Amino acid sequence: MPQTYPQANCSGKAVGDVMSSPGPQVGDDMIVDVALSVLIGARADHLLVRDEDGRCTGLITRSQMTAHRQSSWYTEETRLRDLIYDRGPFTSPVTSAHDAERAMRQRALRASPVIGDDGHALGVVVLTR
Fold this sequence. Notes:
Blueprint: H1 15-18, E1 25-27, H2 32-42, E2 46-50, E3 56-61, H3 62-69, H4 97-106, E4 111-115, E5 121-126
Parallel strand pairs: 1-2
Antiparallel strand pairs: 2-3, 4-5
Helix pairs in contact: 2-3
């Protein structure tokens, strides 16, 4: 069963109060097919992508990876860093949940990484409706 997350639209709360754990994270040098296997094995809807220093570089979804595999430029050696996926701006834990929800809806995102000052993922905030 896919992971469930709290709603971002909790009145008067900060994102840090409503976020969930970051969930599965993979390196941006990971091959797409391996990343898709990790996502499926974790029963998750998305993966957080990190650089070589462990800082979050974005969030990629199952549909984005599947679309790549069906494209004409698919190869078995394509790395996550070569794909198009959400690379920010990301959400701060002190942002109000209301503002985060509004920003995510404007950008048509269902999920957004919550990033600390050091660039590492603290959690994820997901819209559930």
